[in-house]
Amino acid sequence: MDLLIPEIIRSKRDGNALSPAEIRRFIEGVASDEVSDAQIAAFSMAAYFQDLNMAERTELTKSMRDSGEVLNWGGFGLHGPVLDKHSTGGIGDAVSLMLAPILAACGGFVPMIAGRGLAHTGGTVDKLEAIPGYSTQPTVRHFQQVVASTGMAIAGQTADLAPADRRMYATRDVTATVEQYGLITASILSKKLAAGLEHLVMDIKVGNGAFMKDLDAARALAHSLCKVGTDAGMPTEALLTSMDQPLAHSAGNALEVMEAVRYLQGNIDSERLDEVTRTLVSMLLRQSSLASSDEKAAAMIDDALRSGRAAEHFGRSIAAMGGPVDFMERPTAHLEIAEKRPVFAAPQFNGFFVDHLDTRSLGMAVVALGGGRTRPNQVLDLAVGCSGFLMPGDPVSAEVPLAWVHARNDAGFERAAHRVQEAYAFSQKQVSPTNSMLLERTKA
To answer: Can you give the residue range of the structural domain that contains 94?
Structure first.
């Protein structure tokens, strides 16, 4: 009997659990354009109010994976596991730019399908486009060849990978159904499964600068992602990390690339960024059996960085993706970064201490400069941003700025400076700085 799309929507609307056949039929209709945008919206709203159980989430994820091409790595002679991570987004989240080359230097292969930024969070694809010539939309064949030859490649989602997700997300984005955990799970994991991954770690950001503000809600999403990813044949673990302060020393596309280059060359500007990057790499090394213990993983990471192999893998991948062949040797010659100017606290706060930050407001300072999006497909200024943030516990003075704003003009600087000043709260008592960005780990 032919399954009718309206009846599938009606069944979910009425609170029934959909069968695998019903879910697959609906997603096949999405991919073929048989299902209309109105029907996608109705299905998404039904799922929003009635939820999807774990079996439904797993089947939806696999069906969306199978709506397009699934990368097969069998013919590329890889001599290590296929690995990746995904982050729910934050301020100064440049982890992917360091994690991928470190994993490659440790024997893994990383085909990272990354996204663009929207609202106050930055996107990895936008960061890479700050590198002249870098192609974020290669052919699938070229993408796989770069991974095979350099150990890693980072690119945007192509039309061939999980195309049903592209339609589903576009409709959810304008119908107030993005926040449904089952739909989030399927959207993220279908693309990762389509990339042919063998292991995945999730970085779930929690705090005032993150999509997830509540720890219990973050735990629920982490459990869903780990359970569905593992049940779909891709062992998945999650790390919950704080986003109550910027992760990196800087926020902005070219600025974060520069910080990643410095990190790979042995210069750690942000202990927070180092901690999260090392932990996620270690989780993948353990999960994929490249390392037998956390101690062994730590030693492998140290060696990959100290030897220069991680930097070498990154440079080779950039060149293979169309970027400069000497990028790692001469990053400042290739990255355009706007001139910086200091932003100070109001004079009445001199002698105080930074109490806490509104991290989202710092992200919006980058948006005010033109370095972040307020609407899809908006063209960004990749040279602007902020750097050198004071952190909780730091003293406030007339000599040390709250942050540096990298702006094109006076108007942009004034807009961003206002956002930066709004982001800071001060106290006469010095608070203890946060010792760790790590909150907890989750498995299936």
So the answer is: 74-332
pLDDT above 70: residue 118: no
What's the mean per-residue pLDDT of the chain?
A: 95
What is residue 378's predicted lDDT score, i.e. its pLDDT? 80
For residues 40 and 133, membership in a common domain is answered with no
Same domain, 358 and 413: yes
In one letter, which amino acid is 434?
T
Query: What whole-number percentage of the chain has pLDDT above 90?
Result: 89
Burial state string for 19-52 with b = 16 or more CB within 10 A and e = fewer than 16: eeebbbbbbbbbbeeebeeebbbbbbbbbbebeb
What positions carry a catalytic annotation? 84-87, 124, 172, 187, 191-192
Residue 143, in any domain of the structure = yes
Q: In this model, does residue 315 exceed pLDDT 80? A: yes
Whole-model pTM: value is 0.95
For residue 123, the model assigns a pLDDT of 86
Residue 396 CA to residue 345 CA, distance in Å, equals 7
Hey, how many other C-beta atoms are within 10 angstroms of the C-beta on 409? 10
Question: Do 304 and 405 have their domain in common?
Answer: no
Strand partners, 250: 387
DSSP per-residue string spanning 349-360 = GTT-EEEEE-HH
In whole angstroms, how far apart are CA 125 and each of 11, 78, 415?
Answer: 39, 25, 25
Query: Which CATH number covers residue 57?
Result: 1.20.970.10
Residue 25's SS3 state is helix
DSSP 50: H
DSSP-derived letter for residue 425 is: E
Q: Is residue 442 situated within a structural domain? A: no
At residue 42's C-alpha, the angle toward residues 41 and 45, to 5°, is: 85
Rg of the chain over CA atoms, in angstroms? 22
Residue appearing with tokens 């999960």:
287
Helix (H) or strand (E) segment spanning residue 42:
helix 37-50
Number of H helices, E strands in the chain: 17, 12
**Could you give the CA distance from residue 121 to residue 431 in angstroms, rounded to a whole number?**
27
Contact 90, 53 (CB under 8 A): no
Instruction: Provide the pLDDT confidence category of residue 119 given band limits of 50, 70 and 90.
Output: low
Based on the domain organization, do 96 and 231 belong to the same domain? yes
